[in-house]
Structures are given as structure tokens and as C-alpha cells.
Q: What sequence folds into this?
């Protein structure tokens, strides 16, 4: 309402049309983008991961129970250099094998 009265009395400021501001084009060519990317990136070096020594297979009580007393003794001698007493029971030999395996760890 007040704007209408101001218009009638001529108090209102005249409208000044402003020219739109033209922005300079910021588009770059593909070659410029590539050059810019090359200058800002660092080369990547990939190092080979050191191979871990394979872990020796650990025998379990279950796997030893499937073997004969002779096989258990030979396996202990091969892996740990331990001579088991074959005169003992298979259960005692398995215990001795498991002890030797823990010590070799």
C-alpha cells in the first residue's frame, strides 16, 4: 500500500537496470586438466610384500590317534628330532609328541 502511494507522489527511487555481470569462462581444455593433474599428483610406488615363511603343520591329538605308534615315533623324529619310547602306550606317546611340539614352537 505504501509503495503505491510513493509511486503516485513520485517519491520512489527510479529503477535502474543493471547489466548482468558476465563471468569469464573458467572452462579448461582436456589437455590443461591433464597437465594440472600431473603436476599435483605424486608417483605411487608399490613394494612387494615379504613372503612369510609357511607355518609348519601342527598335528592334533585327533590326527595322531589315527596313526600307529611307529608312525608317531617317526614323525616326532623327523619334525623335532625327538625319540619317543615305543614301549609306552599310544596315549603316552601322543602326550610326549604334543609336549615336543609345544617346545618346538
A:
Amino acid at each position: 500500500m505504501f509503495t503505491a502511494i510513493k509511486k503516485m507522489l513520485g517519491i520512489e527511487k527510479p529503477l535502474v537496470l543493471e547489466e548482468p555481470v558476465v563471468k569469464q569462462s573458467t572452462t579448461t581444455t582436456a589437455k590443461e586438466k591433464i597437465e594440472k593433474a600431473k603436476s599435483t599428483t605424486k608417483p605411487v610406488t608399490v613394494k612387494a610384500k615379504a613372503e612369510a615363511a609357511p607355518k609348519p603343520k601342527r598335528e592334533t591329538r585327533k590326527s595322531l590317534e589315527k596313526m600307529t605308534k611307529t608312525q608317531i615315533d617317526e614323525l616326532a623324529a623327523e619334525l623335532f628330532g625327538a625319540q619317543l619310547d615305543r614301549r609306552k602306550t599310544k596315549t603316552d606317546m601322543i602326550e610326549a609328541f604334543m609336549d615336543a611340539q609345544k617346545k618346538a614352537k
In short: The mean pLDDT is 82.
